[in-house]
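Exercise 3.2. Students should predict the tertiary structure of the chain below and write it as structure tokens, then compare their answer with the key that follows.

Predict this chain's 3D structure.
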Amino acid sequence: MLRPEELARYVALRRWPVSPALEPWVENLWGLRWALPPDLVHVSSVLPHPACNVTVERGVDRAGLGEGAVVTGVVTRRFDTEVRGSGWVLGAKLRPGGLRALVGVRADTLRDRTVAAADVLPGDVVAELERLGPDGDDDAQAERLDAALAALAGEPDPEHQVVLDVVATMLRDRSLLRVDQVEQACGLGRRRLQRLFAEYVGVGPKWVLARYRMHDVVTALDEGYAGSLADLAAAHGWFDQAHFTRDFTRLVGESPTRYRDRRR
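Answer key:
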């Protein structure tokens, strides 16, 4: 989340752990509440993650779908949302490949798309999601969301576990900068790795590696990094500062220098 302290001025953000029944597929539950004056609009910006989200949205109409339960596939660009009026969102951030493993939908068919939950999830689960809303206690609503999604849980998918193991290796070993290094570290051939990521994650392993590196850079700047930007870029795998600046600007929307200056 870019400039999280700005969002906190306008929006209450909460997160909840998931039940053991959901842990293989869902990373966490999260919720947003806001009530802004009529003349105030805040733009919230989030960097993409290799994950799908299931959300119940009130006071929000994304993609012309109206209020209700939606599924958002992996987003490959910065995700901007205008926050205005009052609203409430309760969501589940799935693990990479979690949606494919739960309901069998190929993740690449949902890349950069938000669709009605009824297009992806069983009708009884969607009915439970549609009963959620801002009038109840948020902790209780999160428990109900957890229970609704837990109804989808079945036997673990061995292929999904391979994907999770690869992603865990990427996160654990930040010296991995190229796909061939990931292949060697995980003992997988390129063709199988590309197939698994397309089907389960929705994007290729190269994209995931690059996004995690950029997340690390933005986190460092958000936490007050005051050193050389060239050193920061090199520490995260960019050996050409011009290349780093182009990648950062393309994703974040402004140069790393401007981003840091605005934080200050």
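Discussion points: Residues 4-150 form one domain. The beta strands are 11-16, 26-35, 41-46, 53-58, 68-72, 79-84, 86-94, 114-116.
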